[in-house]
Amino acid sequence: MTQFKNAETQAIRLQYERTENKEHSVPLYLTSSYVFDDAEDMRSQFAEEKEGHVYSRYANPNVEELIGKLAALEGAESGWATATGMAAVFSFFGAILKSGDHVVSSRSVFGSTHKLFTEILPKWGIETTYVDFDNYEGFENAILPNTKILYVETPSNPALDIIDLEKLGEIAEANNLIFAVDNCFATPYLQQPLKFGAHVSIHSATKYIDGQGRTLGGAILASHEIIEKVKAFARHSGPAISPFNAWTLSKSLETLHVRMDRHCDNALVISKRLEAHNAVDSVKYPFLPSHPHYEIAKKQMKSGGGIVTFQLKSGLEGGRKFLNALKLFSLTANLGDVRSIATHPASTTHSKLIPEQRADVGISDGLVRLSIGLEHVDDIWEDLETALDASHANLSVSNEYLVNT
Ligand SMILES: *Cc1c(COP(=O)(O)O)cnc(C)c1O
Fold first, then answer.
1. Does any ligand 1 atom lie closer than 6 A to the CB of residue 306?
2. Count of domains observed in the chain
3. Do 237 and 264 lie in a common domain?
């Protein structure tokens, strides 16, 4: 494949080699296996002496094209694609960790990653120590002789905490750890963790990489050495992505930069308007100067991303009223879609936690998470404004701030 200087061009022009039909757009290789020329061809491919596809659990042209583009965008030597983001996270752990190993992770991680750390990995004697995202000394102090992986999510879901990748890269280097970053919220267009000392970038491609709410997918981007280990684990444990989904995701990457620019533009406008609204207590967006880690975000991200969170003054009850009053926003579990999405973690994804546990991961009762879509920004705002007004109408509890409005 020809290499181009800029990531945007790579995402469009890196294509699996054309067949004799000379398709302009790469065809879909929807096949479970591949034929061999003869017995010797078959023997040598099985022995991995000769490159070939063999079977789609191992390799497929559409999957290879997706990996090639993602590796180019992340500045990684190699990669591996999986059926979901969680399959990518688990395949990475499965490839690197053995019984008795230890992981140090930031506390604010995706819900299912938290389940892996607390319920699945301990079944094999693998323990995890959580550290608050901004306690850099804490990360160092948590490292044990058997620690293998340093794991973080930045920006985190849903708290939008920002972790200094360079600082953690130095800690990983000094302690000989593999430093892995869940880069789902930023996408490789906005942030390339490997440039800041990370060894592994992990994606849920389900979110912005698809960007249109159609398919699940995941990927791990890293050095050849790490990916060889992932490959050895994943080829036989079976988290393979469907060729159809890989084809869809590879097409989606062609427009990633254009979509992300608009997601970011819209999200910045919305976050500023939210900050000025009197039903809103506070707003969190990585590229708002009021974000506690604005400087770090500016250093390691090209732009702030498409996710905005804010606190309603009217708490849990106000959160429900707000969601019910939305007309344009979808109430759905996905994010990173062209369609704007709103969620209220305290009454949904995190409702099983007690308020103190929610507070530990940065979720208060009035927290709303918005995934800002590609609709016209004024239509997005109009919907939000109507719902914000509804959030504090007829509240059963008295709200002092209403007196001032
Ligand atoms: C959604 C998500 C995942 C999991 O991805 P799936 O494709 O749903 O398996 C992992 N990390 C983060 C930050 C996510 O938002």
1. no
2. 2
3. no
Task: Render pLDDT for 14-37 as a digit per residue (tens, 0 to 9).
Answer: 888 877 888 888 999 999 999 999
Q: Find the domain containing 30 and state its range.
A: 7-253
Q: Do residues 48 and 69 lie in contact, with contact meaning Cβ atoms separated by under 8 Å?
A: no
For ligand 1, whether the C-beta of 182 sits within 6 Å is: yes
Chosen domain end from 253, 275, 301: 253
Q: What percent of the chain has pLDDT over 70?
A: 97
Question: How far, in Å, from the CA of 401 to the mean position of ligand 1?
Answer: 37
Instruction: Look at residues 238, 253, 268 and tell me which one is the last residue of a structural domain.
Output: 253
For the segment 110-130, what is each residue's pLDDT rounded down to a tens digit?
989 999 999 999 999 999 999
pTM exceeding the 0.90 threshold for the entire prediction: yes
Q: Is 84 in the pocket of ligand 1 (CB under 6 A)?
A: yes
For ligand 1, the distance from its centroid to the CA atom of residue 95, given in whole angstroms, is 19
- 306, 313, 307, 305: which is closest to 282 by C-alpha? 313
Is 315 a pocket residue for ligand 1 (Cβ < 6 Å)? no
pLDDT in tens, 62-74: 999 999 999 999 9
Sheet arrangement for strand 280-284: 280-284, 307-312, 367-371, 341-343
Q: Hey, is 182 helix, strand or coil?
A: strand
Structure confidence by residue, pLDDT tens digits, 265-282: 999 999 999 999 999 999
Cα distances (angstroms) measured from residue 15 to each of 1, 30, 63, 176, 326: 7, 17, 11, 36, 41
> Measured from the CB, is residue 86 less than 6 Å from ligand 1?
yes
Residue 47 lies in a domain: yes
Atom of ligand 1 nearest to the CA of 86: 9
